[in-house]
Structure formats: structure tokens, C-alpha cells
Amino acid sequence: MSTQSTLKNLIFDLGDVIIPIDLTAPVRNFAMLANLSEDEVMAIWKQFDIIGQYETGLVDDTAFRDHVRKLLKNDSWADEVIDTAWNTVLLELPVERVERIKELKQNYRLFLLSNTSPIHIRRVNQMLTSLNQPTLEELFERVFYSYDVRIAKPSPEIYQHVLTEAGLVAKETAFFDDNAANIESAAKLGIQAVRVEPPMTILDYLKDV
Questions:
Q1: Read out DSSP for 81-137?
Q2: Is residue 12 a contact partner of residue 112, using CB atoms and an 8 Å limit?
Q3: How far apart are CA 159 and CA 11, in angstroms?
Q4: Which helix (H) or strand (E) holds 176?
Q5: Longest Cα separation, the chain
Q6: Domains of the chain with CATH codes
Q7: In what order do the strands lie in the sheet containing 173-177?
Q8: Is the Cβ–Cβ distance between 26 and 92 less than 8 Å?
Q9: d(Cα 120, Cα 199) in Å, to the nearest integer?
């Protein structure tokens, strides 16, 4: 990563960078609710690309829930049941990560870029509020959600969209993500892409920033 004198902008992923996630948890929960195996639920997810459609804005909250009810063959599930199972992907939010990001606002322009869904963003903001922290929209200068942009990482178009919309110079910008493909795609545009890999957390990578 460049020295502080040339680094002006920081872009953060959300899942497993700011908030720890368990990608298998929703599958487990929906499997229990539907009395199916986890493999069966995963196969349905992949066959119909439910997550991809939802996270790129092709379907809204209502259509997503209706798809889940139809494909898992249970018309009686309330919205709250589906939302709760869907949100089990989100683990406890480490408040110290939020505090460090708030400190960085003094010296850098901060942005969020996440492949995500409206249900997840509402839940993360509820968690932040309960911790007396600003919402994501308040914490960052701008947030870029895949369902709003209608493009998902690692597509190069989403990184170019962020650079253009926010008026950023790639070489003056660092991007933190846990996914290797996302990092590789951003780096090809000249962004200083940093992969956050366990057991290290974003706090380790932000020590020298």
C-alpha cells in the first residue's frame, strides 16, 4: 500500500471486513424450517440464483420472500420468519472496527462497497444503532450496494462506477475485501487492493493507515 501522503480514499467491503459473517447459517436455518437437507437448499439456491438476483436488484424484498416460500414449498412463513433466517448470516458486530473507521474519517474519504441485500443492510443498521453507532449511510461518505448499482463484485464495472461516481483516482484509493476475486478485479484498475485474511482482521490492516 502507498504511503499516507498518496493515499486519500478508503473503500471497505462489509461482510467479513466490518461485520463477521457465516455464509452457511441461512442455508442451515432454511433447511431446518423446510425440513430439507442443507445440500437440497443449497442446490435450490444455485439452480434459481436466488441470492444473485436479490443482490443485483433484479427482485425486491417481496419477490425475494415469495421466491423463498415457493421454492422451499411453504406459503405460511411470515416475512419476519424469512428475514430472521436470512439475517443469521450476520454475526456479532465488533464495535472497535466501527470506532477505528470513525477515526479514519478525519484524514480520508471513506466509502462502502458491498454485495448485499436490503434486508441485510437494514439489520446491520439496527445493530449499529443498538450500539449507539452511526448507520452505514452516516458512517461513510457514500455507500455502494450491489442491489442499488445492479452490478456485483467482482465485475470491473462496479469498481469503475465507484471511482467515477465519487471522483476518485484509483492509485490514491485502497480497497479492503476478504474475497480474492474481488481483490484481483479491483487491482486491475490500479486500486490498491488489500485482502483481509483470517486470523487477521481489518484492524490489523489499518494500523499503519
A1: HHHHHHGGGB----HHHHHHHHHHTTTSEEEEEE---HHHHHHHHHHHHHTT---HH
A2: yes
A3: 10
A4: strand 173-177
A5: 57
A6: 9-21+92-205 (3.40.50.1000), 25-89 (1.10.150)
A7: 142-145, 109-114, 9-12, 173-177, 192-195
A8: no
A9: 24
Phi/psi at 191 (5° precision) = -75, 145
The residues of the chain scoring below 70 in pLDDT are 1-5
pTM here?
0.95
8-state DSSP, 160:
H
H/E run at residue 50: helix 50-55
Q: Name the 3-class secondary structure at 13.
A: coil
What's the pLDDT tens digit per position in 164-196?
999 999 999 999 999 999 999 999 999 999 999
Phi, psi (degrees; rounded to nearest 5) at 142: -145, 150
Distance CA 182, CA 13 (A): 10
Give the model's pLDDT for residue 208.
Answer: 83
